[in-house]
Amino acid sequence: MKARLQRLIDNTAIPLLVTGGLGAMVVGSTAVPDSPQDVQFHSAVIVVAVLLLVDLGVRIWDAAGRGVADAGTPWHDRWLYISSPDGMIDVAAAIAVPLGLLLMPHFRDGYLFAIFWVMKYLQHSTGVGLLIRVAIRARTALMSIFTLFFVVFLFAATGAYLLEREAQPEAFGSVPRAMWWAIVTLSTTGYGDVVPQTIWGRLLDGWVMVGGIAVFALWAGIIANAFSEELRRRDFLRTWDLVARASFFQDLTTAAIADIVKLIHARDVRAGTVLFRRGQYGDAMYFIVSGEVSVDIRPEPKRLGPGEFVGEMALVHDAPRSATVSVTEPSSLLVLDIANFRELAGRRPELIATIEAEAARRRSANQAA
Ligand code: CMP
To answer: What is the 261 CA–ligand 1 centroid distance (Å)?
Structure first.
């Protein structure tokens, strides 16, 4: 009950509160100072700030007893929470506006510190966690591109200073001045406020623009690649976990599991889903890791659960589906498609022999019925 309430607060109440508070801060900045609207919006920001402080207090208080078993005192546990990434975000968000109101010379500007509340969105976002892992994974490649960017930037600014300083001393009179043109050109933003006038300056401009596009293309490629690798890795780990848990694969060695993980993929299915219908072409078989499916056969439907498999008869006998199969409980399944089934038959004939024996047993049971 308490866990459900906490989830409701974390996933619904806090995001709503933060969104409302941020909205009030943004719209409040358009109001005429000291007008009734100004007071209303800023009061809303204060209300949210107070609620976040109360929430932080409760979380700190509640953290006692949730630390490592032998960590010691309740205050040690509370300190563990405060110094965790989640705790630091909670503290920063809770003190942002009070601190802003204390520190900023213009009282109105203190409300702008509500912007730190956006950190609360990051806490429960799996996408942000994924992005951070991708950035860490690709950090070496990203850093080398950044270094390349910096080298081209310095060369561009120095070259432009050399070529354009006499024609446009205002914009290119020193290397630091030329840096504005270099960064705008290299990032392919091109405001057009500073344009080289000499022929050599324009030639340099062209090269820098092309260099900028190349750097960003490399950057995008590296990030896209790291993303897909990270997703593949996550998939692999999840499939591994399910294969190791599936009792059908229980006696296998690690090398054999590694073989199977390459051929199989995990699928979570909701209750009520029809996996396939009688008479359809059979393109895959399913191992049930958790949950339950129902096979629609006569005289009465048969329920299959963890450790069992379904959909093998069509693959083994090269025939249409012999029955409709639907999922009766939320289930985790491992899917082996027909091409990989054939490959597994070559690599692990003993596994396929067990599946074939069961398919033959089910077929004769159905014929007898
Ligand atoms: P398939 O024929 O591909 O599709 C329907 C599936 O239901 C079948 O494979 C078996 O996996 C399963 N099935 C059919 N008959 C029985 C049975 N008597 N007992 C358990 N499962 C069955």
So the answer is: 24
Please give the pLDDT value at position 282: 94
Q: Looking at the chain, how many residues does it have? A: 369
- At 250 the pLDDT is 82
Evaluated on CA atoms 272, 277, 283, 287, the torsion sign reads positive
Q: Identify whether residues 111 and 9 lie together within a single domain.
A: yes
The CA-CA-CA angle for residues 326, 329, 334, to 5°, reads 70
Q: Report the alpha-carbon distance of residue 89 to residue 186 in Å, rounded.
A: 35
Token digits of residue 289: 């890791």
Give the closest residue (by CA) to ligand 1 atom 22: 362
Place 64 in a pLDDT band, splitting at 50, 70 and 90.
Answer: confident
* Ligand 1 contacts CB of residue 314 (under 6 A): yes
Q: 180-194 pLDDT, tens per residue? A: 999 999 999 999 999
Ligand 1 atom showing the smallest separation from residue 320 Cα: 2
CB 302 near ligand 1, within 6 Å: yes
| CB of 321 shorter than 6 A to ligand 1 | yes
Residue 53 three-state SS: helix
- The residue among 124, 154, 184 that closes a domain is 124
Q: Is 293 exposed, middle or buried (0-12, 13-18, 19+ CB in 10 A)?
A: buried
Average pLDDT over residues 119-130: 84
- Residue type at position 59: R
Which atom, in ligand 1's list, is nearest to the CA of 323? 5
Is 293 strand, coil or helix? strand
- Which residue among 275, 278, 325 is best mutated to probe the pocket of ligand 1, counting the most ligand atoms within 8 A of its Cβ? 325
* Domain that residue 180 falls in: 140-226
* pLDDT for residue 254: 87
pLDDT at 249 over 90: no
At 188 the three-state DSSP class reads coil
Helices 126-137/199-245 angle, 10° precision:
110
> Do 12 and 90 belong together in one domain?
yes
* 364 and 264 part of one domain: yes
Q: Which two tokens stand for residue 311?
A: 């959909």
Can you read off the two tokens belonging to residue 273? Answer: 């889903």
Q: What would the two tokens of residue 264 be?
A: 């199989």
- State mean pLDDT over 196-213: 96
